[in-house]
Amino acid sequence: MSQYAxxxxxxxxxxxxxxxxxxxxxVVEVDMSPEPYKDAxxxxxxxxxxxxxxxxxxxxxxxxxxxxxKLLSRSGISPETTVIAYGxxxxxxxxxxxxxxxxxxxxxxxxxxxxxxxxAEGRPLASELSNFVPTGYQAxxxxxxxxxxxxxxxxxxxxxxxxxxxxxxxxxxxxxVFMMKPPEGKERGGxxxxxxHLEHTLxxxxxxTFKPALELHTLYSSQGITAxxxxxxxxxxxxxxxxxxxxxxxxLGYPNVRNYDGSWNEWSRLxxxxxxx
Length: 277
What we know:
By secondary structure, this protein is α/β, with parallel strands linked by helices. The protein has two domains: 7-142, Oxidized Rhodanese, domain 1, CATH 3.40.250.10; 145-267, Rhodanese-like domain (Oxidized Rhodanese, domain 1, 3-Layer(aba) Sandwich), CATH 3.40.250. The protein has helices at 13-18, 35-39, 50-54, 65-74, 92-102, 114-120, 150-155, 170-173, 213-221, 239-251, 263-267, and strands at residues 10-11, 25-31, 46-49, 82-87, 108-111, 162-166, 196-197, 230-234. The strands form two sheets. Strands 1-5-4-2-3 form a five-stranded parallel sheet, with helices on both faces. It has a three-stranded parallel sheet with strand order 7-6-8. Helix 5 (92-102) crosses helix 10 (239-251).
């Protein structure tokens, strides 16, 4: 697929169409609301609610192994299950790829183009909810090589071999909005000092698929995001940056990429850190 470093992590819509009835495959749709899922999801897909299943009340990502074990078990997923992830946003599946890799699930893949491409091609949709026999999933502890903490982000300011990558919207980067609304309360608007800004949607074609490797390489390298550096992408809650971790690590083969999953939700509320606008 377009000379990606690891093309095997993507599946296209035809592959999924051919495997809809495969009992070893579990399709997972991820979204902020179950309403679109109830009306028109890929047949056999299970639904994960971003707020209820993946985030804590403070919008931090829930990275407790027991939480992911409960979610995977409820979804009828075992360590041997092939998971195909997608969402209404085309790159949501890439975030879920990061989440499952974080906890050691090997067989996880991203539906290239997501729900957008599936619908555009007129492929079958279902309205009935999917339920599966629960499993007793046991997750590994989060892999520290896939994420970076606040202290490491702060330490990176003194390193020339590290680059921070802000993948939020321009309005968020400039501090005009905070998680899609004006800043309020303890949080502050802006960005981490020195962060390069490249919105996550720039990695996608109009049909929701990922751009070819050469275009992606040009996009990131032109802004100093190169394979010889340690790259720390961040966004608001770690989801969009998780998708860019996927792009850099698996599509381009960058060896040193770690997602700052605390992201702006965490950084903006720290009283002793510098913020730029």
